[in-house]
Amino acid sequence: MNHLSCGTSRIVGCRFSIYPMSDRFVDIILGALRNTDLSKVWSHTDDVSTWVRGRSEHVFDVVQSIFLHSAAGGEHAVLNATFSIGCPGDTQGDAFMSTDDMRMNAERNQAIPLQVAAHFALYPLGTPDYMDTIYEIIGLAKEEGTFDESAHYASRLEGEAQRVFATLEHAFNRAQKTDKSHVVMTTTISANSPSTK
Amino acid sequence: MNHLSCGTSRIVGCRFSIYPMSDRFVDIILGALRNTDLSKVWSHTDDVSTWVRGRSEHVFDVVQSIFLHSAAGGEHAVLNATFSIGCPGDTQGDAFMSTDDMRMNAERNQAIPLQVAAHFALYPLGTPDYMDTIYEIIGLAKEEGTFDESAHYASRLEGEAQRVFATLEHAFNRAQKTDKSHVVMTTTISANSPSTK
Predict the structure, then answer these.
(1) Nearest C-alpha of chain B: how many angstroms from A32?
(2) ipTM score for this prediction
């Protein structure tokens, strides 16, 4: 257990939904949840979304796992997610910050081959130089080879799911300029779409 | 034609996707598009999302129509949408700002009965007092009777679809403090869900 990092870490949260475009959507979502180890995050579900909260690496690990398992059967599935850090008053789930950093779903996540297309947008809040941060993060995605093009109100990523998720995690972490930064990142990730681009 | 308002209006855009949780998702989406009058907005679609841009009232009118028609058949359908105004460099589609303000889909929108649950979040960008604006808008939703509760990273609305969409439009418009404000609002609206809250 890496308790030493506990005091300097900040809790990350994600509100997300999975949309399998299938009559079997309930089974697909429940199956993806069963195949995901949620033991290192706080979680809660209502009829619109699920929330997970904890250390950044576990939040990204869990969301990636639930999406990969939802799409692994080949049906068209979409993830919509809002990641947040530094929201004023955001403390519920702090107990999960004392876990270690070993990702519980990483091995299985790596084993699922999947091509995805994604849009993402970053919102650094409370700061006048937010556009500079956004341009910097677009540069990061270009370096990582997942950037496809800019679109209105979003940037488009494409490629293997694991690489796209890695870019999103790096972008979210890099966008935090100080340990008080409030940053929100939204993303829509689509797999097995019958549409052409 | 109300050309006089053209110079002071600002273009509003929305990036959105509709997710019908059904094997018939393609037919449902295409049917909803056929039943929606898009003549007063600029629009573009890729394999992840659709963009509509133009005057605020037409953007909200069109997005509401596409969602209502997607859910009208009783199948579980979700709208995910990001509304934006004031994004630096955002001008494409400006020609549509010279339309009049008569909503092309309002009458049919009013005729579709539908109960929905929604999450929404507001991101006023580039300003240190963004949290004050967010609290003000939550107050507005409470006044309008659609507010249900606060949730992590979002507020929850519930009720008739028409009233929920009205609150979202009012919230987005009210959050603009100056004619240079850059404001983003995200929302997830769910209808006919088999889940309980």
Answers:
(1) 16
(2) 0.90
